[in-house]
Write a structure and sequence with these properties.
This protein is of the alpha+beta class and about 160 residues long. It is built from 5 helices and 4 strands. It has a single domain, classed as OmpA-like domain (60s Ribosomal Protein L30, Chain: A, 2-Layer Sandwich). The radius of gyration is 16 Å and the shape is globular.
Length: about 160
């Protein structure tokens, strides 16, 4: 009971902290803004070629529909921007993390996360990124971005996230 209460309080605190932020890029993986200067109070503090740079200027994630691992047409631009960004920083290596929502078995979701990560990787390679710079890992449903058993939470958890190594 206490664990559920703590989880609910943590989720409420998270949601209230996010309530005043602009989330227009959240559904598209568009990142936090158009440039590093778009980060309030952090102008110039984002190191080029870093994870923070990727998130702020390009977007680090793409989203999938239920039980699917094909990158949808509306998500491809995020991966194409990532490929362009990676071309600017040839020393950067990345891991593509595949994720799933909480529904389904652990084994099913690990396999689905792997397929999602591989699909995102394939788009990056087709966009000119060397496969030797990329790795893929699946977390299935083990690392949710959003807590809860709602369609909104599930939609946020069906994703592939690009992480700078």
């Amino acid at each position: 009971m206490n664990v559920k209460l703590l989880g609910a309080l943590a989720a409420a605190a998270f949601l209230s902290a996010c309530a005043s932020e602009d989330t227009s890029g959240a559904a598209t993986g568009a990142g936090a803004g158009a440039g590093a200067s778009g980060l309030s109070g952090m102008s110039g503090s984002v190191r080029p070629g870093s994870q923070e740079d990727l998130v702020a200027n390009v977007g680090d994630r793409v989203f999938f529909v239920t039980d699917a691992s094909t990158v949808a047409a509306d998500q491809r631009p995020v991966l194409e921007r990532q490929a362009t960004w990676l071309a600017q920083y040839p020393q950067v290596q990345i891991t593509v993390e595949g994720h799933a929502d909480e529904r389904g078995t652990r084994e099913y979701n690990l396999a689905l996360g792997q397929r999602r990560g591989n699909s995102a990787r394939d788009v990056l390679v087709a966009s000119g990124v060397s496969g030797s710079r990329l790795s893929v890992v699946s977390f299935g449903k083990d690392r949710p971005a959003a807590l809860g058993s709602t369609e909104d939470a599930w939609a946020q958890n069906r994703r592939a996230v690009t992480v700078v190594r």
